[in-house]
Amino acid sequence: MEKCHIAIAGLGVVGAETARHLIEKQSILSEKAGTSLTLTAISARAKGKDRGFDMSGLTWCDNPVDLANLADVDVVVELMGGSEGPALALTKAALSAGKHVVTANKAMIALHGVELAQLAEEKGVQICFESSVAGGIPALKILREGLAANDISSVSGILNGTCNYILSEMEETGRPFDDVLKEAQELGYAEADPTFDVDGIDAAHKLTILDAIAYGNVPDFDKLSITGIRDVSAEDISFAAELGYRIRLIGRATSEGVACVEPVFLPEASALAKVTGPLNAVYYEASPVNTISATGPGAGAGPTASAVLADIIDVAAGRHSFAFGKPVALLSKATVSDEALVTSGYYLRLEVADEKGVLAAVTDILKSHDISVETLIQKIHEEDKSASLVMVLHETDQASMAAAALQLSSMSDVHSTSRAFTVLR
Ligand SMILES: NC(=O)c1ccc[n+]([C@@H]2O[C@H](COP(=O)([O-])OP(=O)(O)OC[C@H]3O[C@@H](n4cnc5c(N)ncnc54)[C@H](OP(=O)(O)O)[C@@H]3O)[C@@H](O)[C@H]2O)c1
User: What is the pLDDT of residue 253?
Assistant: First the structure.
């Protein structure tokens, strides 16, 4: 590219920071790209708003989709968000007009990525979305470029900083989920509507993208099994610590077809368990490289703009990558793991009546599903003649665990059961 003219749609947290860097660091970024990078056009909802950078001389479009048809634009940067609506309309229009697209929009890529990558290939342009997964960590570049020659046995990570902040605060202070969520909202770590974060949807969008690149699949959000952190209790976090574990919301894709987001028990000495606060981390198990991990800020203006700018530099410098690591025609349909073949350890807490024979009945049910107990803690609550039975169970398959948990929960002496948390060793 002799010159690279850039348009940005969306001038919020990420867009305004990206624009500011393009203007204030134009010469150093242009040197890295080997061509001159110039921001020429912008769009957002409120035209008169101060965005913290000099907008004079830039073309303003009220309708973001109009950026796609400006003659002096080579790269359209989509930073509005939303899987449908103007973000999708602009991205399709820009690619159709033969312009490269850079976006941080994980929801749009998880749900429409293959169609957009196909359009980009047909038009001979690129669609880049490094910033959509783990913010400032170059999680996709590590996988797609750095580990291109590897067989990936698993990619897993802490992909949502809000959940990690909430879980680590619960762990440190012993407070319940609702309390810590409220505080996270006041501190700006959680949105007013926290659904996408705490219910695991945001992490699942990111895992869909990692899974597609790791295994050469068509991204398939629907194949994921998704559980958020709303039912992680202060009791389970405390018992986890007593047993030498920490609970983290982990997105995990494996070569066996596992693709799930769920709160899991991790040994406290493991790399991911040590990640606290709003950080993200990604852990790759691959051959021949063995293991790689990367930790860093997964959101925020600076870290996310860092990844957006890196994509802009790649495109301007002519560094080409296939969006999902291969031409679209070579991507396969995602396989779904067989519940009967995927095994792991489990943690289960039962609140039971403190009666003779209850423990024996519980272990009999587990035995009937071929499940054995690795560790057991029994805590008696004298005040109401109840007891907590806390168990770490040896490796078993998902289907057996689900059947045993169901049978246990229907016992008359069992008042309640925790979720059967996966224990990763
Ligand atoms: N924030 C992060 O840390 C982070 C991290 C990774 C990825 N991302 C992704 O980056 C994208 C942007 O996130 P953000 O946090 O920067 O969002 P944001 O602060 O809410 O900004 C959204 C921007 O889009 C503009 N916009 C929304 N609808 C529009 C429309 N119909 N027409 C024109 N402009 C419109 C808004 O205009 P007004 O300002 O005029 O309202 C605003 O400038 C999202 O896809 C998000 O998932 C964000």
Answer: 97
